[in-house]
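Narrative of accomplishments. A recurring question from our advisory board has been how the design workflow behaves on a single, concrete structure rather than in aggregate. To address it, we present the structure tokens for one chain from the evaluation set, followed by the sequence designed for it. No filtering or post-editing was applied between the two.
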């Protein structure tokens, strides 16, 4: 048997997450091998062309709120040129009376200045966003085409090796190296360090080295609607993104005067079926009414043009899993990005790169990472006792107790 091809660093998974991490490592002067089961980048969930990105400002664990702020700033710095900064409005809950002072205090407590998030009364929102609802306006929030971005990141370049059509089925540690096997049980690659960014399939890969991760699939369908120029909906379409119960992008006016409007998404827990469903489009039509506060809207005016169906990978505690698997030296995980692929992949690139390069994690403080945030993302949080070996995070890793922020119903 010939020796498997050896690389210092192998990344499994060429979605937005694996591609962003590989790109950061390349920028830092490393050579990287990316391996993927598909024949091209972004074939799975990252084939999504309409991903929104904004800091989380609603209910949630304090760590989730702090992390999404950091991730948003990192994503903005990273994707600034590629993303569409149309701004996103988050309407207040319908049962809440808008209190500007209270909302402003809340945003300050989240360390979000007015350039990132500011309260608007219904009148102001009508002027700024075209929606007569009170809420929070995030002018720098954006949407990103994950498909194009992933392809751009993995363009041919020096020091990048891409291996396509190769599903890794299991890993084995031998002589301080990791051996990666394909479906035919061939030793396909060996590596000093392996970054696993394979979304749901991280679970069986981890099982192969005796580690159980609480990952589950959440199917989602986004609808692409067409609205005729004379339809009553045309006057209700937003010119900014809206994020609330579901989300939508600004409507695009096409040459023939009709509008193209992206509205999502269903949130089908535990399901991984990629077939499009009429019921999901119906669900999105109902969400559309709520998003633009048009309860009397006739949903027949929202004609189906197309859809995107994907399967999100979500961890038990709804935070992503990003960090060194300290119980298995040389393995790094970046998975469970849930509905925040654009944000978490930018954050994963910084954190994983620092760990792969064995840098002092205190250096991450410049991005706002505190020890408790690094620990909140670490795979170690799921393991108590037996698996929890002394951690490279030192005191950071004492947090083995999962945090359970309230989960969003849709996105
Ligand atoms: C309906 C819907 C709406 C969403 N909306 C948003 C949004 O508005 N904003 C946002 O930021 N995010 C959104 N997301 C989430 C976002 O799309 C994902 O978080 C992101 O694409 C996940 O990227 P990933 O790289 O982790 O996984 P994936 O894109 O799934 O990539 C995993 C890669 O690993 C490869 N792979 C898997 N197993 C193996 C193996 N064993 N060997 C080799 N290769 C393997 C796969 O082929 C694939 O290329 C949404 C998702 C859905 C479904």
């Amino acid at each position: 048997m010939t020796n498997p091809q050896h690389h210092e660093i192998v990344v499994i998974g060429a979605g937005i997450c694996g591609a962003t991490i590989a790109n950061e490592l390349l920028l830092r002067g490393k050579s990287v091998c990316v391996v993927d089961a598909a024949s091209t980048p972004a074939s799975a969930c990252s084939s999504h062309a309409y991903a929104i990105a904004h800091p989380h400002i609603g209910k949630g664990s304090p760590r989730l709120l702090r992390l999404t702020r950091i991730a948003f700033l990192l994503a903005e710095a990273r994707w600034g040129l590629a993303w569409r900064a149309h701004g996103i409005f988050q309407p207040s809950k319908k049962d809440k009376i808008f209190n500007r002072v209270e909302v402003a205090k809340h945003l300050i407590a989240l360390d979000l200045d007015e350039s990132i998030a500011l309260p608007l009364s219904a009148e102001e929102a009508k002027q700024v966003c075209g929606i007569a609802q009170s809420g929070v306006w995030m002018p720098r929030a954006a949407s990103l085409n994950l498909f194009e971005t992933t392809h751009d990141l993995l363009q041919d370049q020096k020091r990048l090796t891409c291996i396509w059509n190769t599903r890794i089925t299991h890993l084995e540690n031998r002589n301080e190296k990791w051996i990666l096997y394909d479906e035919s049980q061939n030793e396909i690659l060996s590596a000093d360090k392996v970054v696993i960014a394979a979304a749901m399939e991280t679970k069986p890969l981890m099982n192969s080295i005796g580690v159980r991760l609480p990952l589950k699939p959440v199917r989602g369908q986004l609808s692409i609607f067409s609205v005729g120029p004379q339809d009553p909906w045309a006057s209700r379409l937003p010119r900014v993104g809206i994020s609330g119960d579901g989300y939508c992008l600004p409507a695009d006016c096409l040459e023939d005067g009709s509008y193209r409007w992206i509205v999502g998404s269903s949130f089908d827990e535990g399901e991984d079926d990629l077939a499009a469903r009429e019921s999901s489009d119906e669900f999105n039509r109902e969400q559309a009414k709520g998003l633009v506060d048009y309860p009397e809207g006739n949903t027949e005016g929202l004609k189906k043009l197309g859809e995107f169906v994907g399967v999100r990978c979500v961890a038990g505690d709804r935070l992503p899993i990003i960090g060194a698997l300290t119980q298995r030296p040389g393995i790094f995980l970046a998975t469970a990005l849930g509905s925040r692929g654009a944000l978490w992949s930018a954050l994963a690139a910084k954190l994983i790169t620092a760990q792969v390069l064995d840098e002092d994690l205190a250096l991450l403080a410049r991005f706002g990472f505190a020890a408790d945030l690094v620990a909140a993302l670490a795979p170690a949080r799921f393991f108590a006792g037996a698996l929890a070996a002394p951690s490279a995070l030192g005191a950071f890793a004492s947090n083995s107790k999962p945090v359970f922020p309230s989960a969003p119903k849709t996105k």
